[in-house]
Design a protein that fits this description.
CATH superfamily of the largest domain: Periplasmic binding protein-like II
CATH class of the largest domain: Alpha Beta
Number of domains: 3
Radius of gyration: 23 Å
Strand content: 15-25%
Structural class: alpha/beta
CATH topology of the largest domain: D-Maltodextrin-Binding Protein, domain 2
Distance between the termini: 64 Å
Number of strands: 11
Shape: globular
């Protein structure tokens, strides 16, 4: 056996994603490079690690055993690296965060300074919907999460980061004849929703429910980016968080439609389980956020306050 750590990393990633294409994207490698290293790794075993049925890649039972062993090896190597940095007096380890999809427009700015100051810290950030974020917290898979609506069934600690504003949004295709926009606009234009489990969708449905808006015309999209493109193309109107609309509003691809009762205003929060024993890395990050959040908000999101 003469496999490398690099080959172990590639095999684990391919096995987890069940796709060479997706693995190459996450590893920032070309598909041929991933395929070549995967073949070299497979050549060292007489038993198949993977198999392709149709166009789908599957991991064999033996392959899953190798994945389990490889993860243990990679974990120990990672631990050695962290211990070396710690001995040198440097902060080292993993910071694991789960965020709702619209928080991706804000969370990176609350991470940049910390990661630049501590190059020995590795970041794992899962971007999903609210349901996925809460599951990650409940299963103790992450240190922190960023959400706009606090789950009421968990015992949590939180740090308030910044306001989250949701407006009614349309494009140049949205024909508004009334001087004062009324709820008839929802009868003239299809409504575009995020997927079930999204906090944005829940807020939108609650608001429209109070207006008794019928839901006959409805489209569902599973990402904020897809929803924005659908709006730009003129497929309908939607209630969306302002945080992800900076460039589209500036370029006049999208427009805020003034409507009574909007914006819906909540707050982005960094949350963690009260029972969670924070690692040295997580504790250091919490201190960083608490001391630097106002500066980050003032320097990065000053455009935000122009919309109210």
């Amino acid at each position: 056996m003469n496999y490398t750590l690099h080959q172990l990393q590639i095999f684990v990633k391919v096995a987890k994603l069940k796709s060479i294409t997706k693995a190459s994207e996450e590893l920032f490698l070309s598909q041929p490079a991933v395929s070549m290293q995967l073949k070299k790794f497979q050549d060292q075993f007489a038993i198949p690690l993977t198999e392709v049925v149709g166009r789908q890649l599957y991991v064999t039972d033996f392959g899953n055993e190798i994945v389990e062993a490889a993860e243990k090896i990679l974990f120990e190597v990672e631990a050695i690296n962290y211990k070396t940095l710690s001995r040198q007096g440097k902060l080292a380890g993993k910071l694991k965060i789960a965020i709702v999809s619209t928080a991706k427009y804000a969370m990176p700015y609350f991470l940049t300074g910390f990661l630049q100051k501590h190059p020995g810290v590795d970041l794992e950030m899962d971007v999903t919907n609210k349901s996925g974020v809460i599951n990650s917290l409940e299963n103790n898979e992450v240190d922190f999460a960023m959400v706009s609506v606090l789950p009421d069934h968990l015992n949590l600690n939180s740090v308030e980061l910044m306001t989250n504003k949701l407006f009614l949004v349309g494009s140049a295709h949205t024909d508004i004849e009334e001087k004062r926009v009324t709820k008839t606009i929802f009868e003239k234009h299809p409504l575009l929703y995020r997927e079930k489990g999204s906090a944005t969708r829940a807020a939108m449905e609650t608001f429209l429910g109070k207006l008794n808006i019928p839901k006959e015309k409805k489209m569902e999209l599973t990402s904020n980016e897809a929803l924005k493109q659908a709006l730009i193309a003129g497929l309908g109107i939607s209630i969306m968080p302002l945080i992800g609309l900076k460039n589209e509003l500036k370029d006049e691809e999208l427009f805020i439609i003034p409507f009574k009762g909007l914006p819906i205003v909540t707050n982005w929060n960094l949350i963690w389980l009260t029972s969670k024993k924070l690692s040295p890395v997580a504790s250091a990050y919490l201190s960083y956020v608490q001391s630097e959040k106002e500066k980050i908000i003032n320097e990065t999101f000053n455009w935000y306050e122009a919309y109210s």
